[in-house]
Amino acid sequence: MTPGLDEILQTARVVALPMTTRFRGVTTREALLFEGPQGWAEFSPFVEYADAEASVWLAASLDYAWNAPPALMRESIPVNATVPAVEAARLPEILARFPGCRTAKIKVADPGQHLADDVARVRAVRDALGPEGRIRVDANAAWNVDEAERALHAFAEFDLEYAEQPCATVDELAELRARVKYMGIPIAADESIRKAEDPIAVARAGAADLIVIKAQPLGGIRRALEIVAEAGLPAVVSSALDTAVGLSQGAALAAALPQLDFDCGLGTGALFVEDVADLSPSEGAIPVGRVTPAAARLDRLAASDERHDWWLDRLRRCHALLDAS
Fold first, then answer.
1. What is the pLDDT of residue 196?
2. Comparing C-alpha atoms, which of 63, 56, 57, 17 is closest to residue 39?
3. CA geometry: angle 295, 301, 306, nearest 5 deg
4. pTM (2 d.p.)
5. Residues carrying an active site annotation
6. Which domains are assigned to the chain?
7. What per-residue confidence (pLDDT) applies to 157?
8. Once rounded to an integer, what is the mean pLDDT over residues 196-200?
């Protein structure tokens, strides 16, 4: 049963975390945090998401706060550095926030930028990590098939680990995968998993070599594990620009996977000027375990009254949808 709304509201806190640089158009990340019997959880669907989609995130948060996670197989999770769509000259500053990380995920196809900007960024990361470093790119579904093929050709010299969601649709991913198979660049699906009515369609169509999973958007740890099992593909656990509380849920998901072949995108706390707790990468990994936000940070990072009320209204609407289902 869905926990009562009053139980959630008793501990609800809304925070606004400033970022070190714009990331996917976000300069301040807002989230609603609350405490349940198992510990703190985070409800933070992006502000543009409609209530039906956001309610899935709430179901995941309530599950994490009220129920113990499945058996965990790891005590720490190796993570990748996350490189926003910044100019190449800023790379040393960005990478310094991810000490010990051997893998970098680089945002490409940012609005207003060109392929030459992406190539310069990828080249700078390859130079910084050296030949043994692992590089993956994430286009967030911004390219059509021809644009994606051209871009992957341009990146070929940098020995990509994989390309994440280069195109929007499953059919496009399948066509692109067939076109670039000879190049040996695996295709990863993200939005085609977390925003799809049928998250297994991408695997059924042979459109991806691996999948990217996130705890909140998929409805929680257990549902995410079911999707991985049904898809039958290797999985990478990533964050949705979560606070340390949400990252701890992602770490629990990664720790529960039977197999974890890739570094995970759970080091994104390093992109905040300040977080509600410390969970940035150390020696290329983050620990597995519940996170309790610091009271002083909750106060210091509190959202404005207007945004606080906006999030509580959203919580009430999404809770009503879950209660009615």
1. 85
2. 63
3. 120
4. 0.96
5. 107, 214
6. 5-68+295-324 (3.30.390.10), 76-287 (3.20.20.120)
7. 96
8. 90
